[in-house]
Amino acid sequence: MALRLTSRLAGALILTALALLPQGSGGAFAQTAAPQGTFDQITAQNGCPGCDLKLESLRTLKLDMPDFTGVNLREADLKEAILTGARLAGADLRRTELERAILDGADMTRSSMRGVDLEKASLIKARLSGSDMRDADLNDAVLTSAKLDNTDLRNAKLTRSIAIGANFSGSKMDGASLERADLSSAMLDNARLPYAGLDRIIAVDASFRNADLSGTRITSGDLTDADLSGANMTGALLRNTRLPGAKLKDVRGLDPKRMINLCGDARTELPAGFEPLKPCS
User: Fold this and answer.
1) Buried-most residue among 64, 161, 204, 256 (CB within 10 A)?
2) How far is the C-alpha of 104 from the C-alpha of 84, rounded, in Å?
């Protein structure tokens, strides 16, 4: 009798202890949703793939090649974080604060990044292909050799960004702000840039083949050796811009009355019937 009571009491104590355990701490057999990761845990594990880190404060986090694949970092604070080579493919980075973060070589393909704050961030050779970056803040960001092909950058802010050699081919950049950006040697073939702001842009040796540049305004820009073959320039305004060696021979919709005070050289290719440009000083 005493033995049966002791066994029952032990069983009851075990069940009570299990009931008091935090949800998701039931060992290897427990099925948990995306776990909440703390700063120290993330540092120790060098990442947290699939975790729910929404609204987390992770400012100044410093990791090398961490794994955050599929993570939810929506509205998290990662200001000045150093995440070189981070794996962030398929991540939720909507309205995430990444100002001054270092994400060189990061894989951020197919990520949800609408409204993300990447002002003054370093994204050298980062991969952002196919991501949703509408309304993103990329002012003063460094995007040298970054891959942003087929990315949605509508209404994104890229003022004073450095995107030398970056690939924007096929991207949607309607209404984007690119004033004073450096797009030298960048690829923007088949990109959509209607009504984008391109004042004071530097696009030396850049390619805009078959791009939609309708309604854009390019004033005080430098398009030396740029290739605009097949681009749609209906309603575009070119003023006080350098065009030595630029290829505009096959552009569509360009109005000579909206080409004001431009300069070029003997290599500049203009549409048939256009007057030669004055030489650049």
Assistant:
1) 161
2) 5
**DSSP class of residue 257?**
G
For the record, the structure tokens of 115 come out as 């409204």
Residue with tokens 């952002």: 128
What is the CATH topology of the domain spanning 158-272? Pectate Lyase C-like (2.160.20)
pLDDT per residue, tens digit, the chain (281 aa), is: 444 434 444 444 434 443 444 443 333 323 234 445 588 999 999 999 999 999 999 999 999 999 999 999 999 999 999 999 999 999 999 999 999 999 999 999 999 999 999 999 999 999 999 999 999 999 999 999 999 999 999 999 999 999 999 999 999 999 999 999 999 999 999 999 999 999 999 999 999 999 999 999 999 999 999 999 999 999 999 999 999 999 999 999 999 999 999 999 999 999 999 999 999 98
Contact 222, 239 (CB under 8 A): no
Domain parsing of the chain, residue ranges: 158-272
Q: Terminus-to-terminus CA distance in the chain, angstroms?
A: 107
- List, in sequence order, every residue forming a beta bridge with 278; answer none if it has no partner: 263
Beta-carbon contacts of residue 138 (< 8 Å; ≥ 6 apart)? 118, 119, 121, 156, 157, 158, 161
Q: What is the pTM of this model?
A: 0.85
Written as six digits, the tokens of 49 are 């793939």
Token couple for 164: 């030398």
Q: Which residue type sits at 225?
A: D
Give the number of other Cβ atoms within 10 Å of residue 132's Cβ.
20
Q: Which helix (H) or strand (E) holds 83?
A: strand 82-84
Q: How far is it, in rounded angstroms, from Cα 224 to Cα 46?
A: 45
Sign of the Cα pseudo-torsion (80, 82, 85, 90, in order):
negative
